[in-house]
Amino acid sequence: MAKRGGFLAGALIGGAAAAAIAVLLTPKSGKQMREDLAKKTDDFLDMASDYTDDFVNKTSEMSSIVKDRASDLSDQASGLAANVKGTVDDSMDEMDDITSDTLADLKRQSSDLSDRFRKASKDAQDVVEDTSDDIVIDVKNTKEEAKDTVSKASEEVDEKAKDLKKETPDLSEIKEELKDEVEKNNPE
């Protein structure tokens, strides 16, 4: 637009200068030349006024178009900024929710594990106590059984010893015979 306006201004100035030179160089009387100059000046002023009005109208139209475009771009930029802000806010809210949910899950899991460990520890302690009691009872029972077994075995050994005493031949006679035999075989 600036080139077009510059061209029009240059054409007007050039045309006016050419007309002025043509009027001045034509052989006419002074009065007639002044009338022609006045007429040509009026024509050029009318033409300049028309071009100026046209330029103002075109500039006004362009200004209106530029303002409308600027307003549209501003609205689009505001909408985009609001959209981005909304998306960021939604993302932040979602991250907060995820973080809160994850933290709550971790706390719950930690509490569950702690409860399980306490229960397992108590169960293990109960098993140890029960097993310890069972071992003591088993040792007492085994001691009593061993005592009974030893007592029975002792009674059986006593009976066997009595039986052996009853069945044992008199060895004193055999002893005397052996002594005699040894003396016979071994004369000294």
Distinctive features:
mainly alpha, 3 helices, 188 residues, 0% strand
Would you give an account of this structure?
There is one protein chain. The chain is mostly helical and 188 residues long. 94% of the residues lie in helices and 0% in strands. It has three helices and no strands. The protein has helices at residues 2-25, 30-167, 171-185. Helix 1 (2-25) runs antiparallel to helix 2. The longest helix is centred in the middle third of the chain and has 138 residues, at 30-167. It is rod-shaped, with a radius of gyration of 69 Å. The termini are far apart.
Q: What is the overall shape?
A: rod-shaped
Helix and strand pattern: HHH
Main sheet: strands, sense, barrel: none
How many runs of DSSP E, i.e. beta strands? 0
Instruction: Report the C-alpha radius of gyration, rounded.
Output: 69 Å
**Poorly predicted runs:** none
Strand content: under 5%
Q: State mean pLDDT (0 to 100 scale).
A: 78
Structural class: mainly alpha
Distance between the termini: 168 Å
Indicate the percent of residues in helices.
Answer: over 70%
Helix run count: 3
Short structural summary:
This protein has 188 residues and is mainly alpha-helical.
Topology record:
Layout: H1 2-25, H2 30-167, H3 171-185
Helix pairs in contact: 1-2
